[in-house]
Amino acid sequence: MSKGHRSQIKRARNEQKDTRPSAKISFARVSVQKACFVLDAIRGKDVNTAIGILTYNPRHASAVIKKLLESAIANAENNNGLNRNNLYVAECYANKGPTMKRIQPRAQGRAYRIEKRTSHITVVLDER
Predict the structure, then answer these.
(1) Which of 15, 71, 103, 111 meets the CB 3.0–4.6 Å disulfide criterion with 23?
(2) Could you give the CA distance from residue 105 to residue 111 in angstroms, rounded to a whole number?
(3) Distance between CA 108 and CA 10 in Å, rounded?
(4) Which stretches of the chain score pLDDT less than 50?
(5) 29 neighbors 116 (Cβ within 8 angstroms)
(6) What is the DSSP secondary-structure string of the chain?
(7) Res 49: pLDDT
(8) 70 and 51 in contact (C-beta within 8 Å)?
(9) pTM, entire model
(10) What pLDDT score does 127 carry?
(11) Distance (Å, whole) CA 71 – CA 52
(12) What is the CATH superfamily name and number for domain 20-127?
């Protein structure tokens, strides 16, 4: 049961490609749960409001996400020719990345495991 030639499959896949400006950071040293607190605050907001929220948010993830949002805005302006004032955060999500396992020595020769979690964060913009 063939689905077609490889080039036909690639062509069909590229037709469905999302053309909205976006930016992604892989292996960010912040857990998904902590990143989602910040992402929930900016989802659906226009970019100027979102940058204001991220600037004064005390969480560590907000600095990482602010840099990512500014990169997405630059992509929208330079690659897609969009106006910054019309942009808003259409989608933003964090997926789980690999976890680094570390050992913490404890009393009586025991060793506790510390899990340093990472995440892949994506911000997608759109024009109003």
Answers:
(1) 71
(2) 5
(3) 59
(4) none
(5) yes
(6) -----HHHHHHHHHHT---S-EEEEEEESS-HHHHHHHHHHHTTSBHHHHHHHHHT--SHHHHHHHHHHHHHHHHHHHHS---GGGEEEEEEEEEE-PPEEEEEE-GGG-EEEEEE--EEEEEEEEE-
(7) 96
(8) yes
(9) 0.84
(10) 92
(11) 15
(12) Ribosomal protein L22/L17 (3.90.470.10)
Residue 18: the pLDDT is: 79
Of 38, 95, 98, nearest in space to 69 by CA: 38
Structure tokens of 25? 């950071």
> What pairing do the DSSP bridges indicate for beta strands 111-116 and 87-96?
unpaired
Which pLDDT tens digit goes with each residue over 60-96? 999 999 999 999 999 999 998 999 999 999 999 999 9
Segments making up each domain of the chain, as ranges: 20-127
Residue with tokens 């902590």: 34
**What is the model's pLDDT at position 38?**
96
pLDDT value, residue 2: 62
Task: Look at the block and give the residue holding tokens 């510390």.
Answer: 114
